[in-house]
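Listing S7. Sequence submitted for prediction.
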Amino acid sequence: MEKTALELNLKHYLEENKDEFEQYLLNQAVNVRDKINDILRVGDIDLINNAHNLTHYIIDENTKDLSAFAKQEGIAWATFSLTLSFKLEWIQAIRRTLWIFIQKYNNENESISLSSFFELEKQINNQIDYFLNEFFINYSTYKDALISSQRKVVEALSVPIIPITPTICILPLIGSVDIYRTNILEEKVLTEIGRLHIQTLIMDLSGISEMETEVIDHIMKIIYGTSMMGCRTVITGLRPDVVRQMIRLGIKFDEETKTFATLQQALNQYLIK
């Protein structure tokens, strides 16, 4: 009974001193206070209002709403890639400010017994720690899902197989090519050859200025793999530096792999017959 009355009195006290609470909070969160408007603009997150909601959930020991609020906040901060250090500083500032006002309340009322104080200490700190735990779990889960989704998009864009006839496709490679990308390349090329029944794959390398030795070796294996699936590989746009590197390594294409200086020459050969 005493605990319920104390909770009601604390909530009432915080409401009466709302403006002062906010000022104390801003003084505690020195790095966040200058970012409050930016966070509101970018993520539509009202830190001040959310701080009041959080303190109510904590004092009420409302775990259900606290968990839902932590999930909402975690997803929002992950979605807009907001700085986690700001969030941690803000929550710890709320913790400190809340205890400052509990002390002020007790100084004015002298109504918190020792046993009630220890119960209150356990309740408030456990609830704040619970919120932080739920927040970071939801942040990490959603952030991982975003990264995975973005990676799939990047992977699809990094291996753009373009059909130009029912049996001929172009694979233009642009930018840097590392082992990770060649692994993606191998998987998608072989999959698409089987799915689209590609008979000729024109691999244009004019957008690549240099390749590591192991990358060249991996591309040769991809060409061999396409051949095993009954698909002819045509290479276009090899740059002089890459060719010299292949010569130094003693790497050469098999007799079935055709090469052309430009993509246009290959298209003229295979489309204008």
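Caption to Listing S7: primary sequence and predicted structure tokens for the chain studied. The two ends are 93 Å apart (CA to CA). The first helix runs from residue 2 to 16.
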